[in-house]
Amino acid sequence: MTAREVIVIAEHLGGELSDITLEMLACARDVARTIGWRVTCLILADDPEPFKALPLASDRILIVKDPVLGSFNPTAYIRVLIHMLKELSPQLILLGNTSVGMDLAGPLSIGLNVPVASGCVAIRAADGGLVVMSRLLGGKLQARTEVLKGTVIALLLPGNYSREVGMRDTLPTAEIRPSPEPLGALPVRFLELVEPKMEDIDVRKAAVLVAAGRGIQSKENLAAVEDLAEALGGAVCSTRPVVDQGWLPRSRQIGRSGMTVKPRLYLALGISGAPEHVEGMKDSELIVAVNTDPDAPIFDVAHYGTTVDLLDLVPVLTERIRNLRGG
Predict the structure, then answer these.
(1) What CATH number should be reported for the domain whose range is 203-326?
(2) CATH topology of domain 5-178
């Protein structure tokens, strides 16, 4: 019997659902209203109180309660989810294309014996099944997958559905269940949540981002990048290698394993343009790339670019902008 349900596996932190959860609900609602399927928001938590009366765009909220589920634990999540999803037998399982979603997708695919579609940007009902549109290799490849029967796990890329559509004025029904199996002794356990420093900024909210890549060569050269960002009224972000060097905090990392941003201006300095980075910034309104390598992949997504040395360009550009702004 074909299942007629979409399950959204929620991500949450500190008693609040993440933006990607609301985007997944918007996607699920878009699919379900076309063909009359039910949407369930599945939440794993230690305390159901923050979630049981949320105005979500779902037909019901199903909360699995256990003390171990107070923070994300992949081992515990996988055990619970495999049991619950086998029972519910949905047609579509939605995960975020996030670190949490990627931790879960592989084991769930094996445990449930269902396929996975990653990098999803749109899902729609068609011909009694589903059509999944995916963006792969940093946006260079568009894939169209038809799922005519059975179940599929889809990892939704952030930023493709409105989080506001994931909410509504009325309350869905809420059901609270205990964990279907004991979760006492686990090989992985949560130790602590390390919050970003209070003085740090949220790069997702910046209209202008100046991004530093490996081409800045040293931590000392970050000062010039920060001066340019200040002159532009923007913020500094970076690629993963810069963060791995310890030059900037993880909260400034852009890419598949970092933040996804859509600023009005994205100035890429010394960035080659690896697919992992491009995935997080390709939808910026204006992308300007500075790289001495004319064959750098970053130029494939940039609207404008130059091959001058960024260490020569940045101080001159900063001074010019300050002069134009009278400061």
Answers:
(1) 3.40.50.1220
(2) Rossmann fold (3.40.50)
CA–CA–CA angle 150, 156, 161 (5° rounding):
120
Question: Hey, how many other C-beta atoms are within 10 angstroms of the C-beta on 111?
Answer: 15
Chain segment 92-146, per-residue pLDDT in tens: 999 998 889 999 999 999 999 999 999 899 999 887 789 999 987 666 678 898 8
- 52-79 pLDDT tens trace: 889 998 999 999 999 999 889 999 999 9
The one-letter amino acid at 9: I
Closest CA to 223 of 207, 233, 210: 210
Q: Check for a shared fold between 5-178 and 203-326.
A: yes
- Where exactly are the structural domains of the chain? 5-178, 203-326
pTM: 0.69
